[in-house]
Write a structure and sequence with these properties.
The complex is a heterotrimer of chains A (about 250), B (about 140) and C (about 120). Chain A has nine helices and seven strands. Chain A is an alpha+beta fold and about 250 residues long. In chain A, the strands form two sheets. Chain A has a five-stranded mixed beta sheet. In chain A, strand 3 and strand 4 form a beta hairpin. The longest helix of chain A has 18 residues. The mean pLDDT of chain A is about 95. Chain B is mostly helical and about 140 residues long. A two-stranded antiparallel ribbon of chain B has the order 1-2. The mean pLDDT of chain B is about 95. Chain C is mostly helical and about 120 residues long. Chain C has a domain of about 80 residues: 3 helical TM bundles of succinate and fumarate reductases, CATH 1.20.1300.10. Helices cover about 80% and strands about 0% of the residues of chain C. Chain C contains four helices and no strands. The longest helix of chain C has about 30 residues. Classes of the chains: A alpha+beta (about 250), B mainly alpha (about 140), C mainly alpha (about 120). The interface between B and C is large, with 52 and 54 residues.
């Protein structure tokens, strides 16, 4: 039972398309305890103060990637950010930056999903492998090559961090490129060439200007900035070597 | 983003105006990107010098004389600070741009990569200075 | 949102940007110090260090000419590319004019550098 004498002011950016011309801040006084996350604060608001508040959440333990939002102007997972770090004072909660706001703290993520589908986020085999051939063998060092990039939970904090995505919403973006990189680096995969056109495109890796904030905010230490910038070199290699090497064939 | 009006949905797109002022991380980014102006300015000084060199001794001496003016000294001090900041930030960003570097089976840390870059800069700078000092002073 | 699948020509300019950035990071500070502070003031180095005979001989040599070419040209291409993107970051519309400025000036500088170096060597 939270100590009602200890409270914190939460300023939440509301947006109800049926009644608001544009988003507006609404303040709630929320009782707080040392172990409360921002997500729990929002849940208190919804349960006891204002049932109309809309926000996404699920696991409440930083693995599902649903509760990404702007907390005091910085992209963060609400379940992984604690009210105690803002006390005494106020905390401002807004929808994830660089995405259109659907309602309150819910953003439109169709663009992200569409791009995710476009990079073929699955193992593309060299040739079909029957069950009788058994499983793929992969050494620990082969696994190590792509492991960090496989940690992505699609929380989109990196998109909220990336100003180039904010300025050009057609940019593939950090998280998607990190996932693309994850598959390219996997020894079982042979689809790098199929994914290259996206990397090389006008909306590909060269939109990135190495701000690096994406990697700063990533809750899973994926380092998407690394994935994007390493692929600049890959893309440059592809740009010049396309006149030398024959097209077609796997790695 | 287009949605049918009948759905009642009206997604709101926020402005990107002044985005870089909202966060110290972005402000620092704009500053280190801005060092490019000083790199260009210095290159211009060198380009003028090169043209002067091609025009003979009198022109070259006039360029050297211009470099001795207080305005030039102040400009170069500011440029030195800016280009040094470029060096510092360049090698801090460098680890992000490289694939894993393995030394005896272990990944080289970002800090180690930065240190190597800064060390290379220091060593080359010393060599450059010693060459000018040894050959021409 | 439909991605523009046209292949970008960015790699050319990105490589020039990277080379110029690396070179300026490695030798930029010391060059500025030597040419802009130390020699003019006679600080640690003599005021005559960059005298006409010295520098002419340096520029006549292939190493010297190559070094000067690399420094001047790559510094310009690095700066042009970075400034172009900074303009974009500042919200300034980066159309044909911005491209002419940011990539045209380095091109002109490259041509002037080649001309100057060739005329020093052969005329």
């Amino acid at each position: 039972m939270p100590n009602t004498e200890n409270t914190i002011m939460m300023d939440v950016l509301r947006y109800r398309p049926e009644q608001d011309a544009k988003p507006v801040l609404q303040t709630y006084r929320v009782p707080f305890s040392e172990d409360m996350s921002v997500l729990q604060g929002l849940q208190y608001i919804k349960d006891f103060l204002d049932g109309t508040l809309s926000f996404r959440w699920s696991c409440r333990m930083a693995i599902c990637g649903s509760c990404g939002m702007m907390i005091d102007g910085k992209p963060a997972l609400a379940c992984k950010t604690f009210l105690r770090d803002f006390v005494p004072g106020r905390v401002r909660v807004e929808a994830l930056a660089h995405f259109p706001i659907e309602r309150d703290l819910v953003i439109v993520m169709d663009d992200f999903i569409g791009k995710l589908e476009s990079i073929k986020p699955y193992i593309i085999e060299k040739q079909p492998r029957p069950l009788t051939q058994g499983e793929y063998l992969q050494t620990p060092s082969e696994r190590d090559l792509y492991e960090q990039f496989s940690s992505c939970i699609n929380c989109m904090l990196c998109y909220a961090a990336c100003p180039q995505y904010g300025l050009n919403p057609k940019f593939l973006g950090p998280g998607i490129i990190a996932l693309l990189h994850r598959y390219n680096l996997d020894s079982r995969d042979c689809g790098e060439e199929q994914r290259m056109p996206l990397v090389n495109s006008e909306d590909g890796v060269f939109n990135c200007t190495a701000v690096g904030y994406c990697s700063e905010v990533c809750p899973k230490l994926v380092d998407p900035a690394n994935a994007v910038n390493v692929n600049k070199a890959n893309s440059a290699k592809d740009y010049f070597l396309r006149f030398v090497t024959p097209r077609g064939g796997g790695k | 983003m287009t949605v049918p009006v009948s759905s009642g949905r009206r997604p709101y797109t926020r402005s990107m105006q002044g985005w870089w002022r909202r966060n110290t991380f972005y402000i620092e980014y704009m500053i280190h990107e801005g060092t490019a102006v000083f790199v260009a300015a210095y290159a211009l000084v060198l380009l003028v010098g090169l043209v002067r060199l091609s025009q003979g001794q009198a022109a070259w001496d006039a360029w050297l004389q211009a470099l001795r003016s207080p305005l030039s000294i102040v400009f170069h001090v500011i440029t030195l600070v800016a280009i040094s900041y470029h060096t510092w930030t360049w090698f801090h960003i460098m680890p992000r741009t490289l694939p894993p570097i393995l030394i005896k089976g272990k990944r080289m840390s970002a800090a180690a990569i930065t240190r190597s870059g800064l060390a290379a800069s220091a060593i080359l700078s010393i060599i450059l200075f010693v060459l000018v000092w040894g050959l021409w002073t | 949102m439909k991605i523009n699948m046209q292949r970008s020509n960015a790699p050319v300019f990105w490589l020039l940007f990277g080379a110029g950035g690396m070179l300026s990071a490695l030798v930029g500070p010391m060059l500025v110090f030597i040419t802009g502070i130390a020699v003019p003031l006679g600080l640690l180095l003599s005021k005559d260090s960059l005298s006409y005979p010295h520098v002419l001989a340096f520029t006549h040599s292939w190493i010297g000419a190559a070094f000067l070419f690399a420094v001047v040209v790559l510094f310009f291409w690095h700066a042009g590319h970075r400034i172009f993107h900074s303009l974009h970051d500042l919200g300034i519309h980066t159309g044909v004019v911005a491209k002419l400025f940011c990539y045209g000036l380095p091109l002109i500088a490259t041509l002037i550098t080649v001309y100057a170096l060739v005329s020093i060597k052969y005329f």
